[in-house]
Major facilitator superfamily (MFS) profile domain-containing protein
Amino acid sequence: MLLRWAAWILTREQQWQSEVSPAHSRGIFLTIQSGNIAVGFCLASWITLACSYTTTQAQWILPIALQVIFAGFLLVTVPFLVESPRWIANHRSLDEATKVIARLQDLPETHEAVLQVRNEIAEALEAEANASWRTLFGNNNEQNFRRLCLGFGALYMQQLTGINTIAYYVAYIEQEYLHLSNSMSHIVAAITATQYLPFALSPILFVERFGRRTLLMCGAAALALMSAMIAVGFNIPGRAGGIFTMVFYCLFYNCFGMSYLNIPWMYAPEINSLKVRSKGMAVASASNWLFNGIVVTVTPSGLQAIGWRFYIVCKLPPSLLPMVAGGVSATNKKLGVVFNLSFIPMVYFLYPETRGLSLEQIDHIFEGKGRGWSCFTSGVRDSIQGPAAIEAARPGRHNTHEVQTADGHHMHHLENMDGSKANAVGIESIPNKA
């Protein structure tokens, strides 16, 4: 229980990483972080193989004890990490946050790029004043509830791809359904996890080029196809069927690693607003563990009840599994793939693109209240077109002007598009040029 609790706490890392990373490379850093999941999975597979050869207490003590190495590494290194400037601005002061921004960008505090980030954070704090748990579940001008649902849904989709119907039980499946020996099944499982590792890290090369939406949609299509082919493999008799199935197991892993391993984890902290980001990330993380538990729980009984058909229906809500197990018609056999493919229109219509946008620019996508269907889709098209389209579509959009006061300060004020002045959003102490 303590290990599970600790793992849940460590899922906060994505929030910290998203808040300290520059917009143009945030996806790369978050991909590296998520890729470490694949590193751990690979190590765990080989440790499981090694421990399968002993029947002593070491079989379960060693895997747990080895985790102390990584926990110790965190204890030593975390104190040297910088605190998130957005957290500092929210809980301490904007001036202290400015110093951290300057350190992260290796620029002086008076540099234009540093002041731009500072003012964006200040504007976000002003717009989201007095946020609470109630704010998170309210669909106000910041559309926090919509954003909460997007983060929750991204990690829900990750688990409903069916990755853990394979990852948790691949050795068991190889023994029971492909008739491999105990040692051979663990060897094949470890090799499968090892070849998965480079694919899990490969989005470093293209996540900021293709964006979140494209990878999610292409990943859903590929995973649906791989699931269908795994089901076909279960119906091919003999050794050929086993080889066929294992090939598509590997391809399933690889398609998942290039899409749904990293994108859902980066999307949740990106999409939530500053004041409720930690709360929104907590709910999204709960989605991951909730549906992880459901999938892992129903997999053994699902395989026992309907065999190969489970790889068709594993994308279904668990409430439908008993109905399918009772009698699978030709239509029902296809329904699971259709459900998985439904992720494609979900992402296309509902999920804004966050590639290359600062966290505050992402906030601008959700400004204002939509009506009807636009409550769920507003800002999606603008986000695809980029920051200029997002700014142009903002309700009550404004221009920022800088005014130098007599004492050498620079004051930024907002001018609405009709020419009237809005409230000041930031004052910087900048020496006079003399």
